[in-house]
Amino acid sequence: MGRWGRRWVSATPDRGGAVRDRLKGLRPGDEKVLRLVGDHLGSLASGDLKVRCATGPEYDGERWAQRKKSLTAESSSRWAGSITKATHDQWALARRALLAYIHSLQAAVRAITHRLSLPVREKGTKHTPGGYRSRQEWFTKSRRLHALQGRLEAALSDWRAGVVQVVRGGKRLLNTRHHLDAAGPTEKQWRYQWQAGRRFLQADGESGKRYGNETIRVGPEGEVSLKLPAPLAHLANAPHGRYVLDGKVSFAHRGERWADRVTANRAVAYRIHEDVGRGRWYLTASWTVPPVQTVPLEVARANGLVGVDTNADHLAACRLDEHGNPVGRPVCFDYDLTGTADHRDAQVRHALMRLLHWAKRHGLAIAVEDLDFQSERTRERRRSSKRFRKLISGMPVARLRARLVSMAAELGIAVIAVDPAYTSRWGARYWREPLTTKNRKATRHDAAAVAIGRRALGHPIRRRTAPPRTHQSDGCGHRTVQAGPVGLGREGNRPRIPGPRTRSVPPGRRENAVNQNTQDRSGCSAEHGFWQQDILPLGLEERWR
Question: What is the pTM of this model?
Answer without folding.
Answer: 0.59
